[in-house]
Amino acid sequence: MTTATLPPDFRWGFATASYQIEGAYNEDGRLPSIWDTFSKTPDKVEDGTNGDVACDSYHRLEEDVALLKSYGAQVYRFSIAWPRVIPLGGRNDPINEKGLEYYSKLVDALLAAGIEPVVTLYHWDLPDELYRRYRGPLNKEEFVADFTRYARVVFDALGPRVKKWITFNEPWCISVLGYNTGKHAPGRTSDRKLSPEGDGSREPWIVGHTLLVAHGTVVDIYRREYKEKHGGEIGITLNGDWAEPWDPEDPRDIEACTRKIEFAISWFADPIYHGKYPDSMRKQLGDRLPTFTDEEIALVKGSNDFYGMNHYCANYIRHRDGEPAEDDVAGNLDHLFEDKFGNSIGPESNCPWLRPHAPGFRKLLKWLADRYGNPKIYVTENGTSVKGENDMPLDQLLDDKFRQQYYRDYIGALVEAANEGVNVKMYLAWSLLDNFEWSEGYQSRFGVTFVDYKNGQKRIPKKSASVVRELFEKYIRKE
Ligand code: PNW
Predict the structure, then answer these.
(1) In angstroms, rounded to a whole number, what is the distance separating the alpha carbons of residues 425 and 418?
(2) pLDDT tens digits, 4-42
(3) Is 170 a catalytic residue?
(4) Of the chain's two ends, which shows fewer C-beta atoms within 10 Å, N or C?
(5) What residue's CA is closest to ligand 1, atom 15?
């Protein structure tokens, strides 16, 4: 019997993001991001909380690196808060050396512990001032120019020590949740009960386009000016979950599954790997979907050294009859938890959108390999919340059986995909710490570490932290 395994150069670790863990929201020169403003607007975050303190990681850098080391992590993915580095955000605004120092120390501490840093430039905390000045990524020229300058400042400060860069985390979430549903900052939507401004039928497509052009521009700069002397690589992280047909016999549901993945993933990945938006999107959206100029597509096409993959769950997909709504962003279809026969896609987590279904991970890895020419894939997030975790007695919470099973199943599916020839080289579990889960506030915990928000943000390992380690120690071949 042969057991499936991972190659010796496979790397694993954990991921976090600045606004979700750092706290210290007004220290050492940091100014507000759109998430500070949004979370302090009534009714935007379910439990009325924000990231003012979060996990207090800004003050616990050594402790968190020691924690990572104790878990055996080989890699740590974190993000940089733009409003710490350039508090006002713009290309002519002052650089805040104190902000850079924090990240520089973090990188040094990681390297000293033998842990490789993977750095995300943008994990949603846009300087609030740039939103006030020109509505952030709705203004392509301004945003690209400001993001480019910010990226250069970070490359210059951390460049030779950091070898793996991610431009944007989940442009789908930025565009759709920020500019269509209004669930995330800056909260724009067509629904006037939720927001005084916004057009969910047009803005997400404009924002997505800006992010692609900004990504392509920064990758071009990195490759021309930094890559050789720093020896690193750069890509974008896309989120996307798997789709199974509601009625496996209905070709319209089968087609809708492909369309759902195209609207979620290929929106960004097709321009990067194939130089154009998917036909299904052009067909539905017409000229509401921007077109690339020759100059833009030259920057975007071929702009990934690796494919960053965030993946959590799966849905059953049912096609819709009739014309799509003006502000439809999904591809004229429904996301369901049960199929035609009443089978559930997976057990409930604590998040309304997340039900584990590990076979979908293997299938999506294969789908990506087939559609994009077997690119090198880094899984930059995968994990789950646990239903009711917040209210459990501590011993039950720490023995997080649901999460342990999730990691066994999902990491097992990853290994199967690798054995089928998918070129996957890294896996980062979301998340190192329980943290600020955006519009769910602190109700959903994703950490392999319990953070006791009521007692000075004390960290206590959950059992899943050692399960992840044992899995990779078992699966990665020694040579
Ligand atoms: C990702 N959805 O966000 C983010 O990259 C993380 O910051 C976040 O904590 C993690 O996943 C867990 O949620 C998502 O509603 C947020 O489909 C929401 C959705 C998907 C991803």
Answers:
(1) 9
(2) 899 999 999 999 999 999 999 999 999 999 999 999 999
(3) yes
(4) N
(5) 353
Compute the average pLDDT of residues 327-334: 98
Residue 50: is its pLDDT beyond 60? yes
Measured distance CA(24)–CA(371) in Å, rounded:
43
Q: What secondary structure does DSSP assign to 308-350, as a single string? A: EEE---EEEEEE--SPPPTT--SSSEEEESB-TT--BSS---S
What is the pTM for the complete model shown?
Answer: 0.98
Residues whose CB is less than 8 angstroms from the CB of residue 70 and which lie 6 or more positions away in sequence, other chains included: 461
What's the token pair of residue 462? Answer: 């959950």
Ligand 1 site-directed mutation target among 45, 169, 310, most atoms within 8 Å of CB:
310
Instruction: Show the ligand 1 pocket: residues with CB < 6 angstroms.
Output: 17, 20, 169-170, 173, 239, 310, 353, 381, 430, 437, 446
Which among 129, 381, 389, 437 is annotated as catalytic? 381
The pLDDT of residue 427 is above 70: yes
Q: Choose the catalytic residue: 142, 170, 389, 416.
A: 170
* CATH of 11-240+305-312+352-475 given 3.40.630.30, 3.20.20.80, 3.40.50.970, 2.60.40.10: 3.20.20.80
- The DSSP bridge pattern shows strands 116-122 and 377-381 to be unpaired
Looking at residue 94, its amino acid is P
Condensed to tens digits (0 to 9), the pLDDT of residues 384-418 reads 999 999 999 999 999 999 999 999 999 999 999 99
Task: Please give the Cα distance from 188 to 38 (Å, whole number).
Answer: 11
Q: Tokens at residue 372, please?
A: 């994009």
245-252 long-range contacts (CB < 8 A, ≥24 apart) are 245/316, 245/317, 245/318, 245/339, 246/316, 246/317, 246/318, 246/334, 246/336, 246/339, 246/340, 247/318, 247/339, 247/340, 248/339, 248/340, 250/319, 252/319
Q: Residue 33: what are its φ and ψ, rounded to 5°? A: -105, 175
Supply the DSSP symbol for 92.
T
Residue 223 burial (CB count, 10 A): 15
User: Cα–Cα distance between 463 and 401 in angstroms, integer?
Assistant: 8
Residue count of the chain, please give it. 479
- Mode of pairing for the β-strands spanning 242-245 and 233-239: unpaired
Give the β-pairing of 75-79 and 116-122.
Answer: parallel
